[in-house]
Amino acid sequence: MKLRVNAVGTLVATASIGCTWMIAFIAAPPAAAAEAAKRPNIVLIMSDDQGWGETQYNGHPHVKTPVLDEMAGSALRLDRFYAGAPNCTPTRATVMTGRHANRSGAFSPNWSTRPEEITLAHILRDAGYRTGHFGKWHLGAVKAESPVNPGRMGFDEYLSHDNFFEMDPVLSRNGAPPELHRGESSEIVVREAAAFAREVTSEEKPFFIVIWFGSPHGPYSGLEQDVSLYAHLPEQLRLRLAEITAMDRAIGQFRETLDELGQRDNTLLWFKSDNGLPRDVEGYDAGWRGRKGEVYEGGVIVPAIIEWPSVIRSPRRSRFPGVTTDILPTILELLDLEHPSPERPLDGISLAALIRGAETTDRPSPIGFWKYPSAGEKKNPRWIAEELSRGTTPTAKNPAIDFVNFRHPHAADPPYKGDAAWIDNEFKLVLIDGKAAGATPALYHLIDDPAESNDIAAEHPERVARMIDELQTWQRSVEQSLTGADYSP
N or C, fewer C-beta in 10 Å, the chain? Predict the structure, then answer.
């Protein structure tokens, strides 16, 4: 165990168990109301299926994203930031818990998290924050009976959808039967979030707001004013980029609300996407290998910006490797809060020092990706009863989602199946369909070869062996969590 002093002067203990970092904050006092009022507001914004290259500041030849461009040019731009998984539900679980989604059985889209998970919303609400969720949820059904709706998972207020949504979205307010909301969906979500921010500000409390857009997830639609900007492009791309531009404008509207409330300087706003560019999109991918659903860079590297004017006073760019599991431990350290179950394994690290302007060094623990082979799970009993798991807010493809999650009675042993990747700073190990069982894995140097085109595994046999051992040690820990071992009886 190592002791250090964090950015706000609190003694912190960190311990490495296998390749999983446990973080405990020592002697942090309970958050009294007066103390909570001094703390910064926290706003987490996430786009849906927006690739790393789908911003103007990252070089897209067509898309117009003036708000994100302005943020990237004035705040902390994270050029090597990863979604916790190559698709949406697992990434959202990593944001909320600081843990890889496989630990809670949220393997892929339309698999739910588990009600025993401790979320950032739970922790901040207990610390005196008012908490609100607006937009896409996708961690389970949002209806009132669901044990994993936003309210049960720590949010005081929510206007949410089970999954993605388009123009004129159908949304549930605090678990009530869904209602139709006419208009552009990103603007609707932001308008509700802004109203919540005004209400909480009038109460002289800090707010934790999560805005998860339904854009630019397909099928695509948009306002004529946005679609007309891309009249020279094919129809699908024209509509997709219109959704991104509308979302960008909505982010600007929310930032204007922060200005009006006098809360902009004291608000940490963290923008990112949930995965890479979808496979069916003929768009600009910035040269990355792979797409959504793959553990190559194109499936997991995403645009990300952190804006906090009172702390990030001048524009900065960082290539320090960060991931969505880092969000929870970062915010806990910035707020001098402790995790209520410090024995529970977390997979992220704190980026507080990076945010505060410290010189970046090597990441102390690698980043793991694992597409779990979940087909066999369905033979096990359900974790949550089907009547509680079925959704109510329809999508363009599904009138009602059955969010599944199954018990996993026994931890497996290596070699593990399913695509996996292990990023240790500049090196990345890639195993497709569990090739550690016999085939030679691939190794890439992400600084010299960001497109993952040159496999250098044969040149570094000792490094490959070490990284495989680290990956399997981490997977063993994840398997243990999947059995439910992290939850107290």
Answer: C
3-state secondary structure of 239: helix
8 Å CB contact between 354 and 457: no
The conformation of residue 306, written as its DSSP 8-state character, comes to E
Q: What is the DSSP letter of 347?
A: -
- Sign of the dihedral defined by the CA atoms of residues 349, 78, 191, 195, in that order: positive
Q: Which amino acid is located at 269 in the chain?
A: L
Mean pLDDT of 402-429: 95
Q: Of all helices (H) and strands (E), which one includes residue 207?
A: strand 207-212
DSSP secondary-structure letter at 80?
Answer: T
Distance CA 238, CA 440 (A): 42
CA 168 to CA 85: how far, in whole Å? 29
Alpha helices in 39-130 (DSSP H): 66-72, 88-97, 120-126
Q: What count of other Cβ atoms lies within 10 Å of the Cβ of residue 439?
A: 11
**How many beta carbons lie within 10 A of that of residue 22, not counting itself?**
16
Q: How far, in Å, CA of 94 to CA of 100, rounded?
A: 5
76-78 and 316-318 beta bridge pairing? parallel
What's the CA gap between 13 and 4, in Å, rounded? Answer: 7
